[in-house]
Description:
heterodimer, A: Rossmann fold, six-stranded mixed beta sheet, four-stranded antiparallel beta sheet, globular, B: mainly alpha, 14 helices
Amino acid sequence: MSLLQITDLQTHFFTSAGVVKAVDGVSYGVDRGEVLAVVGESGSGKSVTGLSVMGLIDAPGRVVGGSIRFDGREIAGLPGHELRKLRGARIAMIFQDPMMTLNPVLRIDTQMVETILAHRSMTRTGAWALSRDTLGRVGIPSPDERMRGYPHQFSGGMRQRVAIAIALLNKPDLIIADEPTTALDVTIQAQILHLMQGLVEEEGTGLVWITHDLSVVAGFADRVAVMYAGEIVEEARTDDLIDAPRHPYTRGLIGSVPSRNARGARLAQIPGGAPPALNRPEGCRFAPRCAFRTDGCEKPQALRDNVRCWRAADLPDFAEVLA
Amino acid sequence: MVFVIRRLLQALFLAFVMSFLVFAGIFAVGNPVDILIDPDATQAERARLIVQLGLDRPFHEQYFIFLGNLLQGDFGNSFVYNRPALGLILERMPATLELAFAAIVIAVVLGIPLGVYAGLRHGSPGSQAVMAGSILGFSVPNFWQAIMLIMVFSVMLGWFPVSGRGEVGEFLGIRSSLFTLNGLHHIALPAINLAIGHLALVIRLARSGTREVQAQDFIRFARAKGLSEPRIVLVHLLRNILIPIVTLVGMSFGGLIAFAVVTETIFAWPGMGKLIIDSIRMLDRPVVVAYLIVIVVIFIILNLLVDLLYSLIDPRIRLDEARQ
Lengths: 323, 324
């Protein structure tokens, strides 16, 4: 049984313009010690899925259907105070912009200690010492001093380390990381990636890594779920997905990674843009941009054998297409 | 420390400039001799008084004599009361200060919770009621509010006295009517009257601040940490909305002290406002000048305090930057 199992999740936003089905029937699972990458472009619903698990969907949004089972227990629709006990204790989350996730007017130690004291009965001194040690673990030099600093005295990479330390404080079973490296320099990205990888292995934590950048997850995630327009279009082991993507959208994504393209050649791209959330195609949502589209694509596509394309088996071999 | 010293020097310069502007301004307003001297007085008596008050000298001489005295701490004697002007003002100041203080406390203590509530529950009936009340609060003229307060709470309901200041009590060496029940009973209506406009502003600032901060990532992160809602609002949100509110309170407080005139007049509150209005009418130059200089000093002190508070509230604000 998975640590986290989401089944047919529906998270909708009830706006004045209409109902936005940001997450429209998403299912995925992640085990202890496993890294699942959720890949998709902006607006594909990958972040909203993560926030749904945390119970952090703000009005006018709401989880309207499906199930979220965490450690064998249904947590979709739990009352706020029950969810609060899970958040930051058993499920932690890290956000995209480290410049914005720490409160600018509170000291680092305040922001760390409060996280511990919100969930455990511990002395303030004990919580402080634990916080400092955790800060050391994520690679912040002289943590004793840095504990007394304010966020603006840290660089972006260091702030993301602080956010990671905060996520780790209560030894969570699951961490949801929402594009944690997107706002960072490439070299810092690699450091953070490496750090997270080590921590997850050490603790056996489950990790959901939400990103729009396939190349980031290539060497890191065990499995990849690709999202498009509120749905998962393909899920596979990382190696399989990268070597032999089956859905036309995944093929497009991988085909457009610059290192995959011949030097000097025009960069491959997926034509068009993602459909607006209020006006998605009736049938296959990717069909308008798909090079392999036929009349049969007019009907809605089900996820079959982990790919949401009825023609997946007919498509030409990916290696040949590239060559 | 350098910052504070620099600010104090600036303040001194400002006070000096102000003294000149005020002196020149009141010189232009009119000749006090016309008002002060009995119309039946002989020409000789007139001339003697003019010389005695120094009004025969040219403007610049008068100013420098005044400035010389000022540097020795002498603001001159009131033409009307023939007593030191500064003494007259300081005598009345506690009444005005306590009124302004009470008004600010009401504005902040009610305004911040109401504003934060309106921001958090944006769109709810309660929030809309608060906002409608705040619009009423600062659009209805102050003097009319005062009269209505008196009519309803003093005349019709009889809950509060119609006017005047209550008994004065002493606490920690400070004498104020805030320390006696009778005093509080008397100050309630004028303080509320003075507070309403500022209360409305504090509500609006707190609400817009709350709405802005609430959408920030760090609030979402605080929730993701599993913090309780009270802690998120009281610690994470509140600290971040305080800066504009502190600014408003600092400026309002100075304004309340300087311009409590209307409220003081309606409630017959024995503060500085009444004194200054009378002095302007009588062209009592020393009192007007001394009053304005005292007000300038109060404003300067308040601004300094506000700047110091900024750096306490928000560590990103460093004082050496604030000097620009």
